């Protein structure tokens, strides 16, 4: 018994410091050790002052001062002389460093996370554990992208739940978070609305070879990069209330692939159940056009039969992917006011249209038969085939629940606040789409298309028309001058 008690005492008691084995020490890491570890992570913080000090001791204060002054003067001259290259190469790096040191480190960052209940207390030592920012990227003045290492016991949902409070603490418009890898998340901080002016419409390519159907430039994303829409092999559903700018996502893709429409490589099948008011201006572009429920059923039947014929041809030729040519073009079905086709129309027509549309959405991808639909209300009662669309876009909507219906569960919690987009014309065309890799919502603005832009598209892209105008290769000013000269000749 005595032997057992001695063994137990030796096992549980550390005679060197009097603490019980297995319990963590109450002492925190020394400040000098933390400082050395920080310098190892940020070597330039010590290297640059050391280089300047060495240069000053070696050459005196004038050469290093002149070098720094010349560098600063050169950056200012670059900033004033050529803003596009400066904003691309220099501004993001300067902005990222500034934001990291002024907003996302030190006591200010720790106090803010503590106020938002995003810190944890280490047991035993009482030390406050603060999530650490690993990287800051401020590509544009309005968007900061942070890579944050969470403390043990936290997960991405912890930050998602506190995102509104975090946005208010940062003075930001919104904060979106997503898990990048174990223990690390990506946080997108939108400091202000990125779109202060309308985006120009998609430019008209000169030839069909310049068109990439997997990356149609139809606007800008919030980082300043082009908003690229993949059309081939995809079915696109656009959700937005009245006045949200759905027309911008109807006409811009057509402008981006205009030479292919002109050359017969893309054929447009258009259903407009608002009596044709939205699409009448582009009527010469269409292969088929329907404006009533009965006409829509006939058009869908013909479109489905076209898909079946293409599938039969592919089986005969032994190909899995149809090449795009004049004999086998991309067949694009465009449906404006999809709800009239799937819910609100004549019941007999609705049932038939739903059956045909479901068949096309499930089988049309390989046969180059794509669908673009536009609807105001994305509920299952209205769009029963909603989940068959492979690309979904959400413009301004009237209810928060519509965001998740359009973009998927949890999209609004991750920052897709489409229900908070103002409904005035100044914000038309602004919306969200989910990034395929990060699953973060990306805000974009589609190009603003005027009646004049539509008329230009019709004049230059109408298929099989002898007097089609050439595609623009000069500046817009020169094009406008030629149009004005033709108008004066016609008037005379």
From TrEMBL:
Gene3D superfamilies linked: P-loop containing nucleotide triphosphate hydrolases
Amino acids binding ATP: 240-247
Domain FtsK: from-to ranges: 224-404
Keyword annotations: ATP-binding, Membrane, Nucleotide-binding, Transmembrane, Transmembrane helix
PROSITE patterns recorded: FTSK
InterPro entries cross-referenced by the UniProt entry: FtsK/SpoIIIE/SftA, FtsK_dom, P-loop_NTPase
Coiled-coil regions listed: none
Region (Disordered): 465-492
Name listed for the protein in its UniProt record: FtsK/SpoIIIE domain-containing protein
Sequence intervals crossing the membrane: 44-61
């Amino acid at each position: 018994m005595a032997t057992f008690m001695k063994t137990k005492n030796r096992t549980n008691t550390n005679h060197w410091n009097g603490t019980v084995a297995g319990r963590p020490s109450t002492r925190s890491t020394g400040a000098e050790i933390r400082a050395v570890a920080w310098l190892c992570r940020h070597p330039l913080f010590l290297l640059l002052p050391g280089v300047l000090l060495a240069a000053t001791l070696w050459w005196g204060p004038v050469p290093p001062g002149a070098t720094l002054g010349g560098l600063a003067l050169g950056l200012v001259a670059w900033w004033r002389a050529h803003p596009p290259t400066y904003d691309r190469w220099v501004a993001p790096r300067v902005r990222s460093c500034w934001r990291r040191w002024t907003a996302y480190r030190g006591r200010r960052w720790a106090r803010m996370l503590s106020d938002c209940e995003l810190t944890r207390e280490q047991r035993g030592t009482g030390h406050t554990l603060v999530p650490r920012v690993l990287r800051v990227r401020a590509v544009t003045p309005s968007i900061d992208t942070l890579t944050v290492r969470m403390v043990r016991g936290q997960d991405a949902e912890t930050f998602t739940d506190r995102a509104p409070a975090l946005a208010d603490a940062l003075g930001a418009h919104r904060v979106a978070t997503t898990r990048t890898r174990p223990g690390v998340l990506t946080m997108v901080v939108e400091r202000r609305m990125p779109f202060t002016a309308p985006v120009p419409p998609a430019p008209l390519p000169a030839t069909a070879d310049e068109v990439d159907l997997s990356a149609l430039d139809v606007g800008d994303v919030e980082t300043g990069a082009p908003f690229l829409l993949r059309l081939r092999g995809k079915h696109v559903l656009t959700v937005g209330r009245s006045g949200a700018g759905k027309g911008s996502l109807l006409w811009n893709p057509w402008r981006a692939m205009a030479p292919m429409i002109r050359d017969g490589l893309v054929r447009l099948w258009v259903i407009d159940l608002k009596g044709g008011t939205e699409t009448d201006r582009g009527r010469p572009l269409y292969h088929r056009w329907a404006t009533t429920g009965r006409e829509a059923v006939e058009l869908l039947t013909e479109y489905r039969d076209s898909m079946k014929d293409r599938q039969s041809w592919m089986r005969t030729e032994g190909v899995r992917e149809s090449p795009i040519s004049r004999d086998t073009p991309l067949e694009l079905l465009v449906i404006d006011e999809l709800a009239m086709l799937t819910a609100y129309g004549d019941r007999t027509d609705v049932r038939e249209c739903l059956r045909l549309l479901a068949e096309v959405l499930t089988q049309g991808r390989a046969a180059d038969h794509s669908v673009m639909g536009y609807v105001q209300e994305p509920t299952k009662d209205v769009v029963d085939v909603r989940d068959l669309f492979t690309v979904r876009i959400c413009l301004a909507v009237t209810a928060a629940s519509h965001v998740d219906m359009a973009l998927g569960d949890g999209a609004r919690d991750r920052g897709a606040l489409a229900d908070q987009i103002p409904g005035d014309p100044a914000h038309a065309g602004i919306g969200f789409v989910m990034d395929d890799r990060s699953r973060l919502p990306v805000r974009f603005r589609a190009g603003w298309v005027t009646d004049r832009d539509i008329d230009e598209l019709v004049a230059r892209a109408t298929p099989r028309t002898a007097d089609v105008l050439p595609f623009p290769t000069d500046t817009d000013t020169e094009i406008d001058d030629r149009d004005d000269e033709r108008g004066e000749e016609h008037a005379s």
